[in-house]
Amino acid sequence: MYQKKLGGTRLTLAAVLREFFEVNSKSYEPLFTTGYLSCEQGQWKVSRKKPDDLPKYYSDLAAKIANETEVAEMPEPEAFASRFNREWTSRCFSPSRKAYGDQEDDILFKSKSDDYKCFSNFFPTLIFLRMKGDENLSFLTKFYFCLEIPYMARQAASLDLAKAKELSVFTDPGKVKTAMQKLREEHGKEIRDEEKLALMRQLLQKKFTQNPVLADYLKNTKKRQLVEDTSSSFWGRGDEGTGENWLGKLLMQQRATLS
After folding, report:
1. Which of 32, 58, 64, 157 has its CB 3.0 to 4.6 Å from that of 88, i.e. a possible disulfide?
2. Nearest residue to 206 via CA among 164, 147, 118
3. Is the pLDDT of residue 8 over 60?
4. Which among 141, 144, 124 is positioned nearest to 132, based on CA atoms?
5. What is the mean pLDDT of the chain?
């Protein structure tokens, strides 16, 4: 179906994704049941052959989407992100049922924890962010590979617009975090806590409204305490276990909106 309809022209990623999105128009329909995308010499094609490494397929495709300007201009980008993430996450991430129920013990999470890594800002999930008002920040209206990247790019925009644009196309959260730390040192300026919390709250809302699988997982943790198990004394519990755990707190606030 897609080969017949899309064949014969040099297709961009945006054109192919738009066609998938429009043909499989119902929100509950998977995007890639009738074919998978591949790129050969700049030409995007549709194949019925299932990729040998499905997690890598989705991860590579998400990275391409995050760096393709035309994709951000497709209709209903938030709805597209939600459907793409539902398929990507459900096929490639097996959430632990240990998070479910009314247990009293805390859930400790970090980017490398197998069971709860999805609560980390490093967890890969498409996020579409739309900037409004300031034309100088219009370049930040795009898809992102994970939450950490728009978080750092938005902060960078208050220091150096050119650097913010550079960070916005990163797909490695560790590298974008390191680059932002270096930028802060160069400018000798820290972002106010109130601004960091407001931005993080907004991005967490985007993350979970645009990924229904993660939203269900977060909701099913019920009233358990969520604690970021990192050395950060602001976002996590810190080395001494006495940190403010703001990421955990904001996640629990987001969970309350899902109940």
Report:
1. 58
2. 147
3. no
4. 141
5. 88
Global pTM? Answer: 0.90
CATH assignment of the domain containing 118: 1.10.357.40
- Measuring CA to CA, how many Å separate 137 from each of 130, 133, 164, 169, 173? 10, 8, 9, 14, 21
Q: Is the predicted pLDDT of residue 224 greater than 50, yes or no?
A: yes
Residue 61 lies in a domain: no
Query: Kind of pairing, strands 124-129 and 142-146?
Result: antiparallel
* Those residues with Cβ within 8 angstroms of residue 162's Cβ, 6 or more apart along the chain or in another chain: none
Q: How far is CA 224 from CA 16, 92, 150, 191, 227, in A?
A: 42, 25, 28, 30, 10
- pLDDT of residue 170 exceeding 70, the answer is yes
Q: Is residue 216 part of a domain?
A: yes
Count of alpha carbons within 13 angstroms of residue 49, beta-carbon side: 5
**What would the DSSP string read from start to end of 138-149?**
GGG-EEEEETHH
Helix (H, G, I), strand (E, B) or coil at 75: coil
Q: Does 196 fall in a domain? A: yes
Q: Kindly report the number of other CB atoms within 10 A of residue 233's CB atom.
A: 16
Can you tell me the distance from the alpha carbon of 157 to that of 165, in angstroms, rounded to the nearest whole number? Answer: 8
Question: Alpha-carbon torsion 174, 175, 181, 184, what sign?
Answer: negative
CB distance 178 to 231 below 8 Å: no
- Taking the C-alpha atoms of residue 1 and residue 23, their distance in angstroms, rounded to an integer, is 10
State how far the alpha carbon of 166 is from the alpha carbons of 141, 170, 221, in Å: 14, 7, 36
Structure tokens at 104: 């009293």
Tens-place pLDDT, residues 116-168: 999 999 999 999 999 887 788 999 999 999 999 999 999 999 999 999 999 99
Domain count, the chain: 1
As a whole number of Å, the end-to-end CA separation of the chain is 41
